[in-house]
Amino acid sequence: MSIQNLVRPDFSGVVSVAVDGQAVFRGEYGFADKANEIPNRVDTRFGTASAGKVFVAAAILGLIEKGVLRFESTIGEILKFDMKSIDPGITVRQLLNHTSGIPDYFDESVMTEYEELWIDFPNYRIRKSADLIPLFISKPMMYEKGARFQYNNTGYVVLGLIIEEMTGKSFDVYLKESIFDPAGMADTGYYELDRLPARCASAYIFDEERKEYRTNIYSIDAKGTGAGGAFTTAPDVEEMHERIQGEAL
């Protein structure tokens, strides 16, 4: 069965398959902008949502490799704001592997739609990781640190804050300098939704009631944070994968 036969008729995006660093298949499907019928291309930038967590993890591992940070470093040692009921003994390791128990501002076991967050807190105000602190800082711990695994968005917001504290740079600038530029990922970055560069695809949500697509601009952060939201292209993702596999990153 060919890849073409596996792609659903309503799929919109890019499919890229690489073997030993060489692209063996690339397919372009649907529109980057449905209203204006601008087609997706191989170099179209797509928002990655939580897939962007891998970039944050790579940056943290780089800091550990440099000796700037340790897996067992705690948030209480690093961050300077009042933790309230959050356990200051949570470690970097626990944040990375989703075992911290830190209160999740978007608990996917309870909330079904990300846009529910913005009922009382407008999404256009979220332009850096620190902007999300009010959404979780007053909540209780979900469970004792290290007790179990539960996917957690706040953990990666905090990792973004740790990057900023340890480097003195905003986390997206540091990721550009330490991950994207060295890997040749020229089309990858964190962009504000109201200041998008060229070739960025609009993201869409299907409205079941009206049976039509709408853009997600009122559903996500105005700019990506440690929890996700980077824009990238299929070739850039391939480039990073090859660098990691070859231990060049």
Short account of what is shown:
This protein has 249 residues and is α+β, with helices and mostly antiparallel strands. It has helices at 3-6, 53-65, 75-78, 92-96, 153-167, 171-180, 234-245, and strands at residues 13-19, 22-29, 31-33, 38-39, 46-47, 204-207, 212-215, 231-232.
- Count the helices. How many? 7
The helix content, as a percent range, equals 25-40%
Q: Alpha-carbon distance between the termini?
A: 35 Å
Biggest beta sheet summary = 2 strands, antiparallel
CATH level 1 name: Alpha Beta
Name the overall outline. globular
Question: Roughly what fraction of the amino acids lie in strands?
Answer: 5-15%
Radius of gyration: 19 Å
Polypeptide structure, described:
By secondary structure, this protein is of the alpha+beta class. A hairpin with a 4-residue loop joins strand 3 (31-33) and strand 4. The chain has helices at residues 3-6, 53-65, 75-78, 92-96, 153-167, 171-180, 234-245; strands spanning 13-19, 22-29, 31-33, 38-39, 46-47, 204-207, 212-215, 231-232. The protein has seven helices and eight strands, in the order αβββββαααααβββα. The model has no long low-confidence stretch (mean pLDDT 94). It has one domain: 3-Layer(aba) Sandwich (Beta-lactamase), CATH 3.40.710.10. The strands form four sheets. The protein has a two-stranded antiparallel ribbon with strand order 1-2. Strands 3-4 form a two-stranded antiparallel sheet. The two termini are 35 Å apart. Helix content is 25%, strand content 13%.
